Amino acid sequence: MIKAIRVSLLLLLLVASLAIVAGGTAEPSSRIDVLRVEGAIVPAVASYIDRGISEAESHQSAAVIIELDTPGGLLSTTQDIVDRIWDAEVPVVVYVDRWAGSAGTFITLASHVAAMAPASRIGAASPVSVDPDEELSDTLEKKITEDTAASIRTLAQSRGRNLKAAEATVLEALSFTDREALGLEPLSEEHQELLELETPYLDPPLVDLGAANIDSLIAQLDGITVTLTRGNVTIVTRDYFKNNIEMSLIERFLQTISDPNIAYILLALATTGLILELINPGTILPGVVGAISLILAFYSLAVLEASWAGIFFIILAFVLFIAEVFTTTFGILTLGGIASLVMGSVILFGGGPELFQLHINWWVIALVAIVIAAIFIFVVAAIVRSQRRRPATGKEGLVGQVALAQTELDPTGMVFIEGEHWTAKSEGGRIEPGEEVVVTKVDGLKLWVVKKEQGGSSWEE
Length: 461
Fold this sequence. Notes:
The protein has 15 helices and 17 strands.
């Protein structure tokens, strides 16, 4: 009897264990998650992709598709995205819509399935200096290029894609159309020589599929087996439903300000607003705008790894602009400020390699320099002039004002000015009651006046 009870308990434990295992290995759903990435590859994009893949994993989606259209991005951010795709527990499909330049090439080749839309292109993944006017040293350039080439070779080899073509996007900055990348169209003779191909077609191809749209791509994905970290998985897209995962407002905003031109404008706006607030305390609005812009500028500059030398040059420019207002140098300090501003703008994003060029457009630099120079020549000068102006209130403010004689001034009498009666003394002879006089001096509680028609004039005049 006891033995039967023990056997029954063991059977119950076995059934329970099997139920738990069965429950933990549920079949993937027919859900397809779709992400849309446009613009530069910056940390906000990496956060968006990570969130999208995590959501797909939590729902055990059949696959997550990343629609990609990018000119490139930051090297460190690209590596973060590649690592996230590599560790994904669901198949990640990259669909190149229009352009997968530089960083986009790495992301595409890291995917489990790479697809391209008609008339799209991929490639040109060579690392460049973030300052287009500053060349990398030969040794540093060689190290960076070789490391980047090794990275892309690893991706291509691991996914079974054309290793020579992938490497050439880095070493030779080659780009391929969708049909060339798919091995459906012959390469140019020049490209064939560079790749040392035995045939004019890429074999194996650089990407896996060509699709006119997302629905066409999903139909082609059905039955494809990919290798994940947990093993081989077959994608099943029958009776699928699409779930679009959009960028959040914060992610979209952070991506927008992670642009060299925007970061530069924010820094200029922040410095201008804060300096105007310091020069004329209590205006509030310039200070608030400047403080907010400064915080956003710090984020952008940190993300884009801006040069401290460039930042200091820009700050020096504003110091020179202010100094011009308080001194008389006939524009020398203003010219120095403009030169410092332009120099800082040019080198603001210099100093290291990335997968696309980070630089400020020249028209933006010119526009900011003109606007800031105008502000400090006119607005700040007007503020300082108003601060230096003779007080318009109190006793000193009476000088130059018109008063009305209440009594005869011969030479002393009473005048009426600004609602008050004052003792006054004439400096130019007898003044009759009712005549207008102009205050020339204030001596204690006595005013010195002259007849208005004898050459006196009011302050306003």
